[in-house]
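User: Let's play a game. I give you a shape written as C-alpha cells, and you guess the letters that built it. Ready? Here's round one.
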C-alpha cells in the first residue's frame, strides 16, 4: 500500500506461502480489503480477498518548520473515537487541526512543506493558540461500516498572526477506521 512516497509505503499483508510462487496480479484496494488474483502451482488462478485487520494509524512524511511539530493518533474505532496528539508546537502560533481525504501524492507547498490531505476535501476540526508544546483533539468516529478500511488524513498547520505570515506543518497521519 502506498501514497507514492517511500515514507508512505507499507506492507498491507504478508502473502508469502510455503507452496511456492504466489504471483499476485490485478491488485485492487476497496473498503479496507485487498482484491487480487493469484496463482499457486497446485490450484491455479483464484480470486483472493485479504482483510486488513483492525483500525490503523500510519504517520507519513516529515514535519516542516523550525520546531518540527509532530503528530500521532490513537486507532479510530468505529462507534468510538480517535485522539489526535501533537508535540513541539511553536509557542504562541495558531494551530489548526485538519481532517480530510488524503492527497495522493502529497502536495508540495514549497520550502520543504507538504500537505498530506487534499486541500479541496477537508474540514477544520478545531483551532487553538499554542500555549504549550503539546496539544490534542478527540474526534468521534461514526459507527458506520461503510467507513471500515477507508483512509482519512489528519494534519496540523501552524500559522503566525503577524506579517509576514509564516507556516509550520506537522507530518501527516492516515487513519483507517475499524471495529
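Assistant: Ready! My guess for every position:
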Amino acid at each position: 500500500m502506498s501514497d507514492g512516497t517511500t515514507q508512505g509505503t507499507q506492507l498491507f499483508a504478508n502473502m508469502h506461502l510455503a507452496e511456492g510462487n504466489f504471483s499476485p496480479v490485478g491488485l485492487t484496494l476497496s473498503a479496507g480489503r485487498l482484491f487480487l488474483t493469484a496463482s499457486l502451482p497446485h490450484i491455479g488462478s483464484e480470486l483472493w480477498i485479504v482483510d486488513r485487520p483492525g483500525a490503523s494509524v500510519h504517520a507519513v512524511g516529515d514535519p516542516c518548520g523550525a520546531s518540527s511539530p509532530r503528530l500521532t493518533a490513537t486507532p479510530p474505532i468505529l462507534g468510538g473515537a480517535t485522539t489526535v496528539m501533537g508535540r513541539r508546537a511553536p509557542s504562541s502560533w495558531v494551530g489548526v487541526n485538519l481532517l480530510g481525504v488524503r492527497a495522493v501524492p502529497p502536495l508540495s507547498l514549497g520550502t520543504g512543506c507538504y500537505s498530506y490531505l487534499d486541500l479541496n476535501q477537508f474540514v477544520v476540526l478545531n483551532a487553538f493558540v499554542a500555549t504549550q508544546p503539546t496539544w490534542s483533539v478527540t474526534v468521534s468516529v461514526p459507527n458506520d461500516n461503510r467507513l471500515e478500511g477507508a483512509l482519512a488524513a489528519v494534519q496540523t498547520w501552524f500559522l503566525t498572526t503577524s506579517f509576514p505570515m509564516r507556516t509550520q506543518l506537522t507530518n501527516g497521519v492516515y487513519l483507517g477506521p475499524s471495529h
